[in-house]
Design brief:
- The chain is of the alpha/beta class.
- Helix content is 38%, strand content 21%.
- It is built from seven helices and ten strands.
- The chain has a six-stranded mixed beta sheet, with helices on both faces.
- α5 links the parallel β9 and β10.
- α1 crosses α6, α2 crosses α3 and α6 packs antiparallel against α7.
- It is globular, with a radius of gyration of 17 Å.
């Protein structure tokens, strides 16, 4: 994937604060980890120009990296809209995978038709430690799908996530990544140039909070 696309998507996400850096006042994740970044790619859906860039970008990733794709499956809930739009652009069927099976009706976990052996691409909004997207891949594999890989808008590039994805033999291609967004944020004045090292220290070891005091 071309670096200029990574940079453009980074600029787009920053412009609508879908990715928002606050190294001086870290956000606290559900896990308790202090984070200098807040990421809400759902905001792309309400920004039509950015949304168009993102969806066309995801479609181009599928064409380039997974030309054999027969069906797209979104992650619930953040990946559903993106899978639907990209499926429309590519003329491919789409469905989505619930975080758990329904407790009523047909008790489906996978919504939409999925045939055994179908070549499937998972559409995700962001990847951090990789846990949630790998649960989706597992569910699809159990249903007999051939999972070609994942496309996502943004990835943190955390070591834990990279190791998990590699161990599960799952390929991911993202439109942009933490390093690119941090560099663009510094260039465009969202954060100071000195903050970039702190942000990358967080990315490398989220449990080490020494970056908060600017000591890296």
């Amino acid at each position: 994937m071309e670096n200029n696309l990574k940079t453009q998507i980074a600029k787009d996400l920053l412009s609508i604060r879908a990715v928002f850096f606050r190294p001086e006042e870290p956000f606290t994740w559900a896990s308790g980890i202090k984070s200098p970044v807040y990421c809400d790619n759902r905001l792309t859906l309400t920004a039509p120009e950015v949304r168009n860039q993102v969806e066309q970008g995801l479609a181009s990733l599928v064409r380039e990296y997974y030309p054999q794709a027969e069906v797209l499956m979104g992650t619930s809930t953040a990946g559903i809209a993106h899978a639907a739009i990209v499926g429309h652009l590519l003329g491919l069927p789409m469905g989505y995978v619930r975080s758990g099976a329904k407790d009523h009706g047909r008790q489906n976990r996978i919504e939409g038709r999925l045939e055994p052996g179908q070549k499937t691409v998972v559409v995700e909004d962001l990847i951090s430690t990789g846990g949630s997207v790998l649960e989706v891949v597992d569910a699809l594999r159990e249903a007999g799908a051939e999972v070609l890989g994942v496309v996502s808008i943004f990835t943190y590039g955390m070591q834990k996530g990279l190791e998990r994805m590699a161990a599960a033999e799952v390929k991911n291609v993202s439109l942009t990544d933490f390093d690119t967004v941090a560099a663009v944020a510094a260039e465009e004045g969202y954060i100071s140039a000195g903050d970039v090292a702190r942000l990358l220290a967080f990315r490398d070891n989220p449990s080490d909070e020494s970056w908060i005091g600017g000591t890296v």
